[in-house]
Amino acid sequence: MKLSARELDALQELVNIGIGQAAGILNDMIESPIRLQIPYLQILSPADVQAQLEGHLNGEQIAAVQLKFTGSFGGIAQLVFPTNSAASLVTMLTGEEAGTHDLDAVKIGTLSEVGNIVINGVMGAISNVLQQRLNYSIPNYMEGTIGSLLISGGLTTDTVVLLAQTRFIIERLHVEGDIILIFNVNSFDTLLAAINQLAGGL
User: Which of 47, 120, 171, 182 has its CA 20 to 30 A from that of 25?
Assistant: First the structure.
């Protein structure tokens, strides 16, 4: 699917707004200032997204938080980390060292909360700015391969994927993750129509 420069810029701005809001919430939760940056945003076909992610993540096992959204447009949102980055982020946020007995439960709870904040920030910005109503499911934590993650995300030939690489910067710790938004084509068309309607009214 080919987007105009204006549509891509608008999507980038919406995601940036959401990331900014999420960073503000995370900063209130922890003592170390956290910054979230998005180096780039891409629209990918189902055929391209798995190869893109596996190349970017070097085929690593991943940890992911996923939630479904429905309403004016529907789909699935995921926040994905390489497992090493996930462990580093949890250690920084909680003080729990890798290898401790309680790390798994702490990791799942912490990453689920971070994922919920980041995803809700992004989807909240999209729905609020575009004045579209969305409902969200409870976040679901999973670990596995990129392929298994995308299958669980309902990736089919009738889907469009918005991929935003995110960088979490906490003091000198750099953790990279990816925000993946999976829409069916009709829902993505609805999203673009709302973007173009907003742009036309400005």
Answer: 182
The CATH number given to 5-201 is: 3.40.1550.10
Cα–chain-centroid distance for residue 66? 8
Cβ atoms 113, 93 nearer than 8 A:
no
Q: Quick: pLDDT tens for 58-106.
A: 777 889 999 999 998 899 999 998 888 888 888 877 877 766 656 678 8
**What was the pLDDT predicted at 98?**
63
